From TrEMBL:
<dbReference type="InterPro" id="IPR000515">
    <property type="entry name" value="MetI-like"/>
</dbReference>
<comment type="similarity">
    <text>Belongs to the binding-protein-dependent transport system permease family. CysTW subfamily.</text>
</comment>
<feature type="transmembrane region" description="Helical">
    <location>
        <begin position="263"/>
        <end position="284"/>
    </location>
</feature>
<protein>
    <submittedName>
        <fullName>ABC transporter permease</fullName>
    </submittedName>
</protein>
<feature type="transmembrane region" description="Helical">
    <location>
        <begin position="214"/>
        <end position="237"/>
    </location>
</feature>
<dbReference type="InterPro" id="IPR035906">
    <property type="entry name" value="MetI-like_sf"/>
</dbReference>
<feature type="transmembrane region" description="Helical">
    <location>
        <begin position="78"/>
        <end position="100"/>
    </location>
</feature>
<keyword id="KW-1133">Transmembrane helix</keyword>
<feature type="domain" description="ABC transmembrane type-1">
    <location>
        <begin position="74"/>
        <end position="282"/>
    </location>
</feature>
<feature type="transmembrane region" description="Helical">
    <location>
        <begin position="12"/>
        <end position="36"/>
    </location>
</feature>
<keyword id="KW-0813">Transport</keyword>
<keyword id="KW-0472">Membrane</keyword>
<keyword id="KW-0812">Transmembrane</keyword>
<feature type="transmembrane region" description="Helical">
    <location>
        <begin position="156"/>
        <end position="179"/>
    </location>
</feature>
<keyword id="KW-1003">Cell membrane</keyword>
<dbReference type="Pfam" id="PF00528">
    <property type="entry name" value="BPD_transp_1"/>
</dbReference>
Length: 293
């Protein structure tokens, strides 16, 4: 905080700080408190609110635990989000290393342009593009049949399609933190390890990965949080049997109209996501301040 006042002065720094606090209070704190309060209260008509029945209960959370399918969908969403995170990490790490220490300037610029151009469209259009690719008569089936790998078209929608669509949608949120971390690694360390006889695998395991752990942790946190809270990709690419937990939250709020139960589902998802994020930071031995810098 003192750095803000030193850089911008007391007046301008105070304005920036006030805007940040206003943003946190209006868009994070107040809605969060409202959701927690709504999740702990029963659904009552306006005439009964504030009466003897308007007390804090855990019925909305108990409904989630006791429902035969919703609990499974909840943990499947967390597991699938972790799979999306792991998939994007496997895709982005070699690309980030290549961009940082192998690619020439023109190759790096060309690669970044090619990866950024699709993101000039919004997430819905990119989801529709994957919907067309995975369609029964789409280009994926046509290519596989042309190569002789399929005898007849297959339906690719479902959990696999959702994971593929999300990995594509959030790949840059994994790539750039890892790339920024690897860029700061002195290439002489890699050359010295190679000259001393270290294998490529050992160089990455002992030098590159420890140096890039902050970027990896940051990318994993970003991708996991966005995947767990995504609605567009599961709605477009999911099958009837591959529902995402955010779809249940949407149904409680906007189709059924039970905001209390929808808030409980949202709070449960938020609590689980925070638990997983803190676990990731502990796994990489990175504090939250370093991850969000």
């Amino acid at each position: 905080m003192s750095e803000i006042f030193q850089r911008f002065g007391k007046t301008l720094g105070g304005i920036f700080l006030a805007l940040v606090l206003l943003w946190l209070a209006g868009l994070v704190l107040v809605p969060g408190i409202y959701m927690v309060n709504a999740s702990l209260t029963p659904r009552l008509p306006p005439a009964l609110r504030g009466g003897p029945e308007d007390v804090y209960v855990l019925d909305n959370f108990a409904y989630l635990l006791n429902h035969p399918n919703h609990g499974w969908i909840f943990f499947k969403t967390i597991w699938s989000s972790a799979l999306v995170t792991f998939t994007t990490l496997l895709l982005c790490y070699p690309i980030a290393y290549w961009l940082a220490h192998v690619a020439r300037q023109w190759q790096m610029r060309l690669m970044l342009v090619l990866m950024l151009v699709p993101y000039l469209m919004n997430e819905v259009l990119r989801g529709l593009a994957w919907y067309i690719i995975l369609a029964f008569s789409g280009p994926l089936n046509a290519a596989l049949m042309w190569l002789g790998l399929l005898d007849e078209p297959q339906r690719w929608y479902g959990d696999g399609g959702v994971v593929a669509g999300m990995a594509y949608a959030y790949i840059l949120f994994m790539l750039f933190p890892i790339y920024n971390a690897i860029c700061t690694l002195d290439r002489d360390q890699i050359n010295a390890a190679r000259n001393l006889g270290s294998s490529t695998w050992r160089i990455h395991w002992r030098i590159v990965l420890p140096h890039a752990k902050v970027g990896i942790a940051t990318g994993c946190v970003f991708v996991f949080m966005m995947a767990a809270g995504s609605y567009v990709a599961p709605a477009l690419l999911g099958a009837p049997g591959s529902r995402w937990f955010t779809q249940l939250v949407y149904e409680w709020f906007f189709e059924i109209g039970n905001w209390n139960r929808g808030a409980a589902y949202g709070v449960a998802l938020m609590a689980m996501c925070l638990t997983v994020v803190l676990g990731l930071l502990a796994l990489f031995r990175v504090n939250l301040t370093s991850a969000i810098k």
